[in-house]
Amino acid sequence: MTQDTVITIMQRGLLTILLVSAPPVLMGLVVGVLVSIFQTVTSINEPTLAFIPKILAVLSALIIFGPFMLSTLEEYMVDLASSIPGLLTPR
């Protein structure tokens, strides 16, 4: 196994991590900003007000984007597992 192979595997792994984690993180970010704007406009300084909408947003993102996330992880793992015999042979 060469350095190029290891770098390629790591790049694909990092890209997969980004693709899988992006939907819940972005939904939490958007809802957090909206709640923050709402708190600023209404002058409500309650720190616990942001938790429930963020939790619901992340859970809904997991439900909505779950099939996409699962298929992305499955595709990466199948490709990685199928490439193992080629990685173990000496060149």
Write up this protein.
- The chain is mostly helical.
- It has a domain of 43 residues.
- The chain has three helices and no strands.
- Helix 1 runs antiparallel to helix 2.
- The longest helix is centred in the first third of the chain and has 40 residues.
- The protein is elongated, with a radius of gyration of 20 Å.
- The mean pLDDT is 91.
Write a concise keyword list for the protein shown above:
single chain; 91 residues; mainly alpha; elongated
Briefly say what this structure is:
With 91 residues, the chain is mostly helical. 85% of the residues lie in helices and 0% in strands.
User: End-to-end distance, in Å?
Assistant: 8 Å
The percent range for strand residues is under 5%
User: Unreliable runs, pLDDT <50, ≥5 residues?
Assistant: none
Shape: elongated
- Rg is 20 Å
Q: What is the residue-mean pLDDT, rounded to a whole number?
A: 91
Give the helix tally.
3
Structural class: mainly alpha
What is the string of SSEs from the N terminus onward?
HHH
Number of strands: 0
- Helical content (DSSP H or I, runs of 4+): over 70%
- Main β-sheet description: none
